[in-house]
Amino acid sequence: MKNEIAKGQQYIMNTYGRFPLVLEKGEGMYVWDTNGKKYLDFVAGIATNSLGHGDAGLANIVAEQAAALIHCSNLYWTMPQVEFAEKLIEASCFDKVFFCNSGAEAIEGCLKLIRKYGSTTGRYEIITMVNSFHGRTYGAVSATGQKKYQQGFDPLLPGISHVPFNDFEALAAAITPKTAGIIIEPVQGEGGIVPADKTYLQKVRALCDEKDILLVFDEIQCGVGRTGKLFAFENYGVYPDICALAKGIAGGVPMGVMLANAKTSSALQPGEHASTFGGNPLAAAAANVVFDRLASGLLDNVNKQAAYLAQALTKLKEEHSEIVDIRGVGLMQGIELLIPAAPVVQKCLENGLLLVGAGANVIRFVPALIVEEAHIDEAMAILSKALLNG
């Protein structure tokens, strides 16, 4: 393992603070390192491995599609892509879908669509939230409301401002005659697992309708069944004009999605936006598997296990004074600590549990959607031990 880590440090750009761990294989909720040590995975590729590791149905379909057709240009139609597009539109409030490869790319598409739509009336300004995270490409990091991700990259994309999350008055005050769109995560992920208030989102929707401002939801982390609904906004009864999805949408195969309603989607015409690999047959085939599993009972498991996880975290809080808050929706939960999260996460790793932080003092729980009660019990036992011995 030390040899692989040393080679990685030699040849790969230092853009990740990686754990000293080389993973080799996975099955279900578990992964193994190259030394044969087993870990319970509550990171799931950061909310990406929806079906866990080594899912036979997903692996078989991906293999079959790879043997048939991995990629072709979007100058042509392919059956897996059209099939998945139909499923997304028929299950949502949207009219059209654009396929890309990641969450950051989906946000770039949203930014372009907002500005293209607003260009006919001379509007271009975009408002996003403080502590938001929308990705690391140039437009996405400009939209992100955390300075630590923007340092050293000035000048950022102009015309983007940030207001406090869940503060309607601050948002309303920031709107100008040039405002074209507002981007919100229904549940902030990297910002500390902070859900939006339902009344807040309802007020924002009404304001956008009044002023013909586009409302965009970034569901890159909280979408695709993670909150117990196919879309996180279904928990609020508030419907955006545009929505970005990625992470868990294809079970670990790279895919991003921008969904838009009829009035906005027509703003983009051939040649104005594109993606070479977006929605290629391999990724679309994988996404069809994930979608079909969500539609055939997996969402029921998410809701059942989410309730169990919330109960388990509440019990853990009662036993450990270091935990000051529990928050989240569905299988996107977080605990806020009085102490730094990183040492606790490291201690859990040493004891066979993979966790990830969400800011300096928050540990997030985004396991695969196939998680069971026994896995949650195992995770809580390891975490409790880490808190006691931290």
How would you describe the overall organization of this protein?
This protein is an alpha/beta fold and 390 residues long. The chain folds into two domains: 2-55 and 298-389, Aspartate Aminotransferase, domain 1 (Alpha-Beta Complex), CATH 3.90.1150.10; 57-293, Aspartate Aminotransferase, domain 2 (3-Layer(aba) Sandwich). The protein has helices spanning 2-11, 44-47, 56-68, 79-90, 103-118, 138-143, 168-174, 198-211, 262-265, 281-319, 341-350, 373-389; strands at residues 23-27, 30-33, 38-41, 96-100, 125-129, 160-163, 179-184, 187-188, 194-195, 214-218, 242-245, 256-260, 323-329, 332-337, 353-354, 356-357, 362-365. The strands form four sheets. It has a seven-stranded mixed beta sheet with strand order 4-12-11-10-7-5-6, with helices on both faces. Helix 4 (79-90) packs across helix 10 (281-319) and helix 11 crosses helix 12. The longest helix is centred in the last third of the chain and has 39 residues, at 281-319. The radius of gyration is 21 Å and the shape is globular. The model has no long low-confidence stretch (mean pLDDT 97).
